[in-house]
Specification:
By secondary structure, the protein is mostly helical. It has two domains: 108 residues, Winged helix-like DNA-binding domain superfamily/Winged helix DNA-binding domain (Arc Repressor Mutant, subunit A), CATH 1.10.10; 94 residues, no CATH class. It has twelve helices and seven strands. Strands 2-3-4 form a three-stranded antiparallel beta sheet. Strands 1-5 form a two-stranded antiparallel ribbon. Strands 6-7 form a two-stranded antiparallel sheet.
Length: 255
């Protein structure tokens, strides 16, 4: 009997940024969870207010008030249908000026009912900010690439200026973590550009933090690549700029 009950049990889960909001009553959050669970491949759903009341255990009036609050806060869009038909609901989250449609929020059933469901890519993007917050409060491991690269930049600077004011290294680590996770830079690329920067007479004194390094990374990498190409050409021509004369005697150059 217990196993049958567990199999039929369904759980709803809200994103942390919604669950932690103090401007939304608990009942409104439950309504949002139920609506999100019902959203299908067409990015919308249309449960009636009585259906939502039954699913949430709230009164119909509370459901209607909750929907209005969610709409006012910009968390859902409500498409009101004519002729007394049920409304269509669309879940949205705002990132800057963009409105990102979300097919489904995190939803899962327990292991007896098939385990965790696949999470759409759109939802994953919504959690980047939450990961940032976790990284700010939980120190990254000292043997991670992020920590190693942040420490590398600091050591390269210290080699040139031993009394350089030491930063909060964990803050530096966060910017490296974002470069790898969000900007899709590989640790190898980051290290190569970082070492080049601290050897360049101009950039070495302008890139003194991982935040500035991340901001200028594309420009720095292009400069490094161009410099390497010029170096290759110079190595073929020679430092004097002279080039071989194909019609001259061996060892003779023209300028």
């Amino acid at each position: 009997m217990t196993s049958d009950l567990q199999t039929k049990t369904k759980f709803y889960k809200l994103p942390i940024d919604i669950a932690s909001r103090r401007d939304l009553p608990a009942g409104t959050k439950i309504i949002l969870a139920v609506i999100a669970d019902r959203i299908g491949e067409n990015d919308s759903c249309w449960p009636g207010s009585r259906t939502l009341a039954n699913d949430t255990g709230l009164s119909r009036l509370t459901v209607l008030e909750g929907i209005k609050k969610l709409e006012t806060k910009g968390i859902i869009q409500v498409e009101r249908q004519p002729n007394g038909k049920v409304n269509h609901y669309r879940l949205v989250t705002k990132s800057g000026k963009e409105t990102i449609p979300v097919k489904k929020l995190y939803r899962y059933r327990n292991s007896t009912a098939g385990g965790i469901e696949t999470i759409p890519q759109a939802v994953k993007k919504l959690y980047h900010n939450q990961i940032d917050q976790l990284n700010q409060t939980n120190t990254l491991r000292q043997n991670s690439n992020e920590f190693r690269l942040a420490e590398l930049l600091l050591n390269l600077i210290l080699e040139r200026k031993s009394d350089f004011k030491k930063p909060n290294l964990q803050t530096w680590v966060i910017h490296i973590e974002r470069m790898i996770r969000l900007d899709k830079r590989t640790p190898e690329r980051i290290e190569a550009v970082m070492r080049w920067v601290q050897q360049d007479s101009f950039w070495q004194n302008n890139i003194l933090s991982t935040a500035k390094f991340r901001e200028k990374f594309d420009q720095l990498e292009l400069k490094m690549t161009k410099g390497n190409q010029n170096g290759d050409r110079n190595s073929k021509v020679g430092t004097s700029g002279a080039r071989p004369n194909p019609t001259a005697r061996p060892g003779e150059f023209v300028r």
